[in-house]
Amino acid sequence: MRKHSLPTTMFAIALLLFVACNNKPCPPAEAGPNMDSVRALIGAMEQEYAAAENAKDAERLSKYYADDAIVLPNGKTAWVGHEQIKAGLQADMDSMKAGTKVSFMNTGLWAQGNIVVETGATTWTDSTGATVNTGKYMTLYEKRDGKYIAIRDIWNDDK
Length: 159
What we know:
Blueprint: H1 6-21, H2 35-54, H3 58-62, E1 65-72, E2 79-80, H4 81-95, E3 101-112, E4 115-125, E5 131-144, E6 147-157
Parallel strand pairs: 1-6
Antiparallel strand pairs: 1-2, 3-4, 4-5, 5-6
């Protein structure tokens, strides 16, 4: 007959009691965010972003970002925090030719808990409506104080 040590036997008994006493059904999986609602909210944010950029309003535009956000702009070093983001956005808008307008098109949206990731396409047009450039972006949002706010943003031009 095989001998078992007292600690091994006690562990086995404790494990059996734990399993027997905790034989409850698993709680239901937490429901994810309503994607139609998230899509509408993020779409409205993108429309506001485009309107602020087209108005060359860096203050309004910078409110899209959390105070601790990081932006990874095309061909530049990262902008960290509200003041760098605001200054970087203003410099970008100042460098655009007069009459240039931007628009965004969502190409993908994923959500889990308080986090949303959006991918999209960007189009810039001149004053005649002709496309002067295109690009793509990815933005990471976090729900804070009941609303989504951008915490990471990256974009690059196709040209």
